[in-house]
Amino acid sequence: MIFCYCCRARTQNRKLSMNTIEDDSGTVTLETVNSVTLTQDTDGTIILHCPHNDAEELGSDDTLEPAHKRLHLCSEDEPHVSGSAPRISVVTLPISEKEESFEVTMTATTEMTESDISEGAVAQIQKTEEVSPVSQAWFTTKEDKDTLVNKGHKWKQGMWSKEEIDILMSNIDRYLKSRGIQDPTEIIFEMSKDERKDFYRSIAWGLNRPLFAVYRRVLRMYDNRNHVGKYTPEEIDKLKELRVKHGNDWATIGAALGRSASSVKDRCRLMKDTCNTGKWTEDEERRLAEVVHELTGTEPGHTVTQGVSWASVADLVGTRSEKQCRSKWLNYLNWKQSGGTEWTKEDDMNLIKRIAELEVEDENEINWDILSGGWSSVRSPQWLRSKWWTIKRQVANHKDLPFSVLLKGLQELAENQLPFGKVVMAAPRPPGSGSPSSLQQVQIRVARLDESSSASHSPVAALQIPVQIPVQITHVAPSDTSSTANDAETITLNAGTLQTFEILPSFHLQPTGTPGTYYIQTGSNQGLPLTLAASPTVTLTAATSPSSPEQIIVHALSPDNLLSSNENVTVQMSHPGVIIQTVSSDDLASAESLSQSALTVEQSVLASAEDASDVNLEKVGAEAGSPQREGAEQEVISGSEGAKFLQNPQVEAPGHLTETGDGQEHLTDTFSAETLGSPTMEEHVVERTVGEGAVMIVPSPNSFIQTADDIDSDSVLPLTTLTDPILENQGESSD
DNA sequence: CCATTAGGTAAGGGTAATACACAACT
DNA sequence: GAGTTGTGTATTACCCTTACCTAATG
């Protein structure tokens, strides 16, 4: 697969070169920009935030009009059919009147033509991808499962992860588009078997679950009689009547109640005429213990956590439902009977430690039976799991964190004997431009919380441990500076003791194995290894920009001489967009002005004439008067004079690469978006050298390339080598 | 006729969120 | 003593797997 680097950005005096490590097939010039933050909403829409100050200075009111830009982007990890290419649409949107920023929404989509999304195309996609036999058979028996697992196939069980649901939804969406159907419930509930032939097989693609599991999941998802909520007393009364009348005909009862069959079935399991509620009496507890030991053939005092028919137990206990019996036994009585000890804080730490030692990739892989073995304060494996859940829930965004990240974070907190604070995540902003089927997964926004909202004032304690973002960095230093190089390969992003970061959903830090060191990773299980490793140790400190609390400014604390202008700093990254701003320590005080530096994005234009007509080419800058229209050529406004979104509408063939003077391939046709800062900032842009400050916006191809050893191959985005634009004069890019 | 496919039903173990009770603290 | 907070327990809506079944299809 050849990666297409079809977009580039550059500033007036600096270039970032980006080329692929794998095949070196493309080089992209990149712009240095400032004060920009990329985020992604749940649809995968990439949102590029720029401080309002810039926009305000640069643009008139009409800058708030959405300006679509189609940017070509080839993707390897997604199955796109020949002739269709993923595109990124860029829209500038006002966030709100109050917020001092605007956003540029970049949405990567694969816009398939009618023929592309035909059945044949889908079939082609599936044909070219490895389809797990697990997801293509209606297996139900343990034997089937064991057979496939023994053959090395993955067999996913348990609760569906967010990633799985995303895949499922994406598959359904694709299927619907291919058939021109709007509402999936048409297929699921209205079509005959014959009409929906291949539906479940199609949407199960990419999932390591048997068709039946997919089928059940889809039914539940789209059954509007499911998720109705709590039963009212009236419903309970009616349910009792219907139960007498229809017995176990759950479908009929459910239809009469407007509930799903499984819902009424489950509710009936909780109902028992003789059921007590509330605190268990000593007599009930005694009976429960007797019954459990009797039915399992065990002696009092023996631990029993499995192989109990709770329906039978409930029948014999008489006054409690099976759920009550199970809960009481597994969460209390079993432990009390076998002489368990009290759970302590040390046990909390121990639990985290033990789970970490298992080195499992997924929480579902934890064998709670084994883990709870010989642990006197554990009441049951099920109880231990709930204990883990209790600990986990102390991290506010635990649902958005990969298991490894969550565990590592908790581990470090435990090791440092810090309270389990909460990583607070801000809800991503709606894209504002619809939600096309996004295939990019990007979320890069770290915003500082106001210090007043930190742990001391809020029940939600903020994570206060230093945040480090190391990135796999390849530092390429000319020989004359190699003597200054050392082994430091980590850039740390140190939040400081008083600073708190608000981390948006789908963005998180993945521990690298080095304490306090993380990879930026998106919530979609895609890694964002981004290491900037200059030879000398470079400590990057996140600092707040007064003008935009949503941006990351990474300050290089190294002395300038360590990042002298004749060094190349190569950033390996695997993401469509990353901003790194390196600022010398001397510049720390001028963070505000830094936030107003220029932003220029050049992208190859993948725009047909029709596309181009849809593009709002408007001046954002103060001096850029009327909207730019077709024919605008790679215009880059220098300094602080304005911002523009430029597009060359003539370009129809995306991804063309041309040779540039420095021998690197560059895309000829560009889309340029530039926000311009103040005159002060212009000086920064012009004069800053390595270590002084630059933000690199790095469009990258969307393909999977293995990067670090400790990064799961499934979670790694395309790796690209960037040459610091600051070093453009050297013009040396390296991988 | 038989095997396979594509569901479909029911039972029951389980999870996760919330409600509740109560003790400790202010 | 009242109000608040933290913690453990109970409840319950919903999830998932398993076993068994059926009708259509090749």
Structural commentary:
Residues 272-333 form the Myb-like domain. InterPro entries: DMTF1_DNA-bind_reg, DMTF1_N, Homeodomain-like_sf, Myb_dom, SANT/Myb. It holds the Pfam family DMTF1_N. This protein is an alpha+beta fold and 735 residues long. The protein has 20 helices and 26 strands. The longest helix has 18 residues, at 162-179. The radius of gyration is 29 Å and the shape is globular. The protein starts with 15 loop residues before the first strand and ends in a 12-residue tail after the last strand. The protein binds a DNA duplex (26 and 26 nucleotides) through helix 7, helix 10, helix 13 and helix 16.
Strand content: 15-25%
End-to-end distance: 18 Å
Total count of strands: 26
Total of helices: 20
Structural class: alpha+beta
Low-confidence stretches: 1-130, 421-735
Mean pLDDT equals 49
**Globular, elongated, flat, extended or rod-shaped: what is the shape?**
globular
Structural Rg: 29 Å
Largest beta sheet, briefly?
6 strands, antiparallel
Helix content: 25-40%
Quick tags:
735 residues; alpha+beta; 6-stranded antiparallel beta sheet; globular; disordered N terminus; disordered C terminus; DNA-binding
How are the secondary structure elements laid out?
Layout: E1 16-20, E2 27-30, E3 32-33, E4 37-40, E5 46-51, H1 52-58, E6 70-72, E7 86-94, E8 101-110, H2 119-128, H3 142-150, H4 162-179, H5 184-190, H6 199-203, H7 211-222, H8 233-246, H9 250-257, H10 261-270, H11 282-296, H12 310-317, H13 322-337, H14 345-358, H15 368-372, H16 381-392, H17 403-415, E9 446-448, E10 473-476, E11 491-493, E12 501-503, E13 507-511, E14 518-522, E15 527-528, E16 531-532, E17 538-545, E18 548-556, E19 568-573, H18 591-594, E20 599-603, H19 609-614, E21 645-647, E22 657-659, E23 665-667, E24 671-675, H20 679-687, E25 695-696, E26 720-723
Parallel strand pairs: 11-17
Antiparallel strand pairs: 1-2, 1-26, 3-25, 4-5, 5-8, 6-7, 7-8, 9-12, 10-19, 13-14, 14-15, 16-19, 17-18, 19-26, 20-24, 21-24, 22-23
This protein binds a DNA duplex (26 and 26 nucleotides) through helix 7, helix 10, helix 13 and helix 16.
Domain HTH myb-type: 272-337
GO molecular function: DNA-binding transcription factor activity, RNA polymerase II-specific; RNA polymerase II cis-regulatory region sequence-specific DNA binding
Subcellular location: Nucleus
